[in-house]
Amino acid sequence: MKGAKVTPQIRPPEVQNFIDVTLALMAGLVSTPEAGAALEGIREGAKQVGPQTPRRAGRQPACQHLGDALIRAAATDPRLAPLCAAFSVAEPLLEWTGEEESGLAPGSYAEITLLGPGGHEERRDIWLGLSLLAPHVRYPDHNHAPEEVYLALSDGDFWRETSGWFTPGTGGTFYNQPSVRHAMRSGETPLLAIWALRRV
Ligand SMILES: [Fe+2]
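Above are the sequence and the fe (ii) ion SMILES. Below is the predicted complex in structure-token form.
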């Protein structure tokens, strides 16, 4: 149709599978009512498919740590193995970003925003993505209006202003209230974590 704007609203099957596997696993791992309710809403929201924004698949320098992080995750907690496998299949289709925006040194940080503002799928209601920190990196304090559930796929420490530093461990989950300031830092090994957010 002349002049019509084509907005593909079909997720690649590899990406759809990663979303399904990830959100189902997170829903099974969360341990608080707030996190459970958030995951329920995010899973419901993810049934709707938004406009797919063309992104250029590609890695950033920090991704040199990705293979190590995925192998450690699956070996440390076998419950994470299906997620790691699904991610490995989807990852070649995805664009890593975040190094410049984070203000960290080159090679320190990379992230993928699958769902969410500026992501592969432009959304304003839910977010889904993951962060990768090279060893010995502290990600800056930040906050945002949506509530957030994290799944740690590695060792590493997390901070929120209401509780200080804590270490959920590989396979650990936690919930951040809307607008609470939070941060993360890696130790001897890379930090890999998934985040799922919902506007409330
Ligand atoms: Fe966050």
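The first helix runs from residue 13 to 29.
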